[in-house]
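sorry for the late reply, my laptop died twice this morning and i had to redo everyting from scratch. anyway the thing you sent over, i finally got around to it. pasting the sequence first so we're on the same page, its 293 residues, then the predicted structure underneath. double check i copied it right bc i was rushing
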Amino acid sequence: MEQVNNRFRAALETGEFLLTAELGPPKGTDVSAFVEKGKTLSQRFHGLNVTDNQSSVMRLSSLAGSVHLREAGVTPIMQMTCRDRNRLAIQSDLLGAWSFGIENLLVLTGDHPRFGDHPSAKAVYDLDSVQLLDTVRRLNEGFDLAGKQLKGKTDFVVGAAASPVARPLEPELLKFDKKVEAGAVFFQTQAVFAPESLESFMAHARTRPVKIIAGVLVLKSARMIEFINANVPGLDVPPDIEAAIRKAADPVREGIRVAGRIVSEIRELVDGVHIMAIGNEECSLDVLEEAGI
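ok and here's the structure:
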């Protein structure tokens, strides 16, 4: 397959301020809007995360979505969860992704199926996220998990997730260290809402040779905030932000303004930002404009 410039890898290696955004594949086979959104976002972002059945809702696969973006000249970051595949399928899909020119990975545990649209689906979790990172490292070295040599190895740029707002923080830092030791070179974090929520985590992270890309969530309604506060463990929208969204004449615009302010406030602390504008991905560009990036 024709080589496409990996803007994310290049920015990672040169030390640019990293800009990534989330892009969910369609629930169906029509990828036209998905690809067009990808082309639009790629004008400003180094890479786009292609989600893997996000929130356990069945969609087009992250692998297929990543291939479609790459064919359109967009740099994908393929997400892979531990939820849906055993170690055979995981390794097979990773080799398949590399054969299609997919170079960037974000590995995740994955939400349990009971939270999604197929609640009776069986969760696999044959590997955990640290073991999945180690699997990628072995494939990069030219071997599978059984120790068998590959005919053609991979060279993935691999990252993982972290939660700076976890309380207590110590268990999160221990897992962070394990992920670094297993091969993660970048981390995208759970949504943060203020610089002070990052300080303790970043003090520890700066002792490691990895890049930290802070997650910034674009809130679009009071209902969205209520859902987050009730259903997302460890993530609470601050009361002042909730109040601003509730009283705004245009909650979507206010959510963009708030996200832009957060980006501006945390920019000097981290190596990049990951914009999550769920269901309204084009807003990610407005957040960068609001932040003066």
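The CA atoms of residues 82 and 127 lie 6 Å apart.
thats about all i looked at so far, will dig more tmrw
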